[in-house]
TrEMBL record:
It is an enzyme of class 2 (transferase). One of its GO terms (molecular function) is DNA binding. InterPro entries: C5-Methyltransferase, C5_MeTfrase, SAM-dependent_MTases_sf. This is DNA (cytosine-5-)-methyltransferase. Its EC number is 2.1.1.37. Gene3D superfamilies: DNA Methylase, subunit A, domain 2 (3.90.120.10), Vaccinia Virus protein VP39 (3.40.50.150). The keyword GTP-binding does not apply. Keywords: Methyltransferase, Restriction system, S-adenosyl-L-methionine, Transferase. GO terms for biological process: DNA restriction-modification system; methylation; negative regulation of gene expression via chromosomal CpG island methylation. Pfam families: DNA_methylase (PF00145). Coiled coil: none annotated. It comes from the Bacteria.
Length: 545
């Protein structure tokens, strides 16, 4: 590092996710602007060294702000995203999104503000050395896209388009967000500067090579390089080209397991029928206890050594009697008004977080979580004891829980409850995820119309600005018909949503209501993604210095 003072202007800064990432990359954010007074206030609480401006950016003269090395811009994305509740394959970006008053009236952020600010900087003789624009992946099909790119090219910029899931935005000393959040980043740099290294290679496990690798992005259709992880692209081992699953933090890592919520049957207000069905489907898929044949180490592989549901015949039990363990998963369950269909394991990341609360946690309550240390010959340890030695790599410890379900709880199609052992889905500006915990595991329940509960052992789905996830748990009683009244159920807390967005645990939200906090988190840029890209840009600026 040369020690150069790299500065940035953060447009549409929101509550400060992008600024937090920029600061983490060693960038000094001199000015930040946004149209929502509450977001500006929260940004100021956490970034007091930054000058703040509450203004309608589309109506602001760019000369109002001093010159900086970097411009970060996150234009309005609500009307481009499926989190809105409908897909907009083409068409101009709408000026107004699903925002709280007075934000709805003041939201005039458009993609064209980026070339407008860039052009002004060029005419002032102090062009931005680099510009990073963040948006949803669907913005690529905006009718103005080609003209927008051409305008930036004519202003003297080269560019690259980066499709990055926040769950895989890992750096040298930090990890990505515990949620699956696909975003598009257009990185511009001044013509004449070296191109930044934007080949993001997240650590992944190659099953063929049986080793950790730096995975490479591989498009299913190389002729159309656009889309989301798993749907349009995967990651592969650079050696054998086998599909490799990138490492990710599970939703279970950010869930407060001391708070499982009340039993569904004890609720004064019954759950919606659709939410109950998502929990039922999540339990049917993830809630069954499983038998886990175990081995002493990597080289003791035996035929049939895999997990087996308890309602199928058991593999042979040998005289040692030590080869079988019992485990049950928690789930994240779509819980109303969401396009999510499935409950998903809490052992995976959360779905994309939107501005609404649409997921709940459903958690089976019989099994204790444990830490799985990802090194040879190291046994799992309980969470009540110390961790095994943490090395410089910092990627050897995984949290394994009795799976909960992340349940979408809003009427949007496509999402199921999933285990809490992986990342959450993308978090939006609404409360869309609940935690459902069956007797032996937890479920996150998305509040989406077609959402399905998922184990809390998976990442959460996308977090919006509304409450869309609830927590559901089940009593230890035998419920072969997946009766859900004994499950415990609650929405994810604001703190859990903030953690799913990878915000610092001490981030201040003073003065904001719960709904406003959810909206600010769901609209935010995840700090690890902003930091990772900023680090790549800072590297070329320091070389050119």
């Amino acid at each position: 590092m040369s020690g150069r003072d790299v500065t940035a202007l953060d447009l549409f800064c929101g509550a400060g996710g992008s600024s937090t990432g920029l600061v983490g990359a060693g960038v000094r954010v001199t000015h930040a602007a946004n149209h929502w007074p509450l977001a500006v206030e929260v940004h100021g609480l956490n970034h007091p060294e930054t000058e703040h401006d509450c203004a309608d950016i589309s109506g602001t003269d760019p000369r109002r702000y001093p010159s900086t090395d970097i411009l970060w811009a996150s234009p309005e994305c609500t009307n481009q995203s499926v989190a809105k509740g409908r897909r907009r394959p083409t068409g101009q970006i709408a000026l107004f999104g699903d925002k709280p008053d007075p934000a709805a009236e003041r939201s005039r952020a458009t993609m064209w503000d980026v070339p407008r600010f860039a052009e002004t900087a060029v005419h002032r003789g102090r062009p931005y050395a680099a510009i990073i624009t963040e948006n949803v992946v669907d913005v690529r099909w905006w009718l103005g896209w080609n003209g927008w790119i051409l305008a930036m090219t004519d202003l003297g910029y080269d560019h690259a388009v980066v499709y990055l899931n926040s769950a895989f935005a890992h750096g040298k000393d930090y990890a990505g967000a515990p949620q699956y959040r696909d975003r598009l980043y257009i990185v511009f740099w001044r013509r004449g500067l070296p191109a930044p290294d934007l080949d993001i290679r997240p650590p992944a496990w190659c099953p063929s090579c049986a080793t950790a690798v730096d995975a490479v992005q591989a498009w299913k259709n190389p002729a159309t390089r656009w889309g989301r992880w798993r749907a349009q692209y995967v990651y592969q081992c650079p050696t054998c080209r086998t599909v490799a699953e990138p490492l990710a933090i599970p939703a279970a890592a950010v869930i407060d397991w001391a708070n499982l919520g009340p039993a569904i049957g004890d609720r004064a207000r019954p759950l919606a029928a659709a939410t109950r069905e998502r929990i039922r489907a999540g339990l049917a898929r993830y809630g069954r206890p499983i038998g886990l044949p175990t081995g002493g180490n990597t080289f003791e592989r035996q035929p049939g050594t895999r997990v087996w549901p308890l309602d199928v015949p058991r593999p042979v039990v040998t005289a040692t009697g030590e080869a079988h363990a019992l485990t049950v998963p928690p789930l994240l369950v779509p819980a109303g008004g969401t396009w999510n269909d499935d409950a998903t394991p809490a052992t995976l990341p959360i779905r994309v977080r939107t501005t609404r609360e649409t997921e709940a946690l459903a958690s089976p309550a019989g099994a204790a979580p444990f830490i799985a240390t990802l090194r040879r010959h190291v046994q799992p340890t309980g969470v009540a004891g110390p961790l095994a030695t943490v090395t410089a790599a910092g990627t050897h410890h995984g949290l394994t829980t009795p799976a909960g379900l992340a349940v979408p709880v809003e009427a949007r199609s496509g999402l199921r409850a999933r285990l809490t052992g992986g990342p959450l889905r993308t978090q939006t500006t609404r409360r869309e995820t609940a935690l459902a915990t069956p007797a032996d595991g937890a479920l996150l329940l998305p509040y989406y119309g077609t959402g399905v509960a998922r184990p809390a052992s998976w990442p959460a789905g996308t977090l919006t600005t509304r409450d869309r996830y609830a927590l559901t748990t089940r009593t230890p009683a035998d419920v072969p018909d997946h009766e859900i009244d004994g499950c415990r159920f609650r929405m994810l807390t604001v703190g859990e949503i903030g953690a799913a967005m990878a915000f610092p645990t001490d981030y201040l939200m003073a003065g904001a209501t719960r709904r406003d906090q959810v909206r600010m988190y769901g609209n935010a840029v995840t700090p690890p993604a902003a930091r990772l890209l900023a680090e790549r840009v800072v590297a070329i600026l320091e070389v050119a210095a």
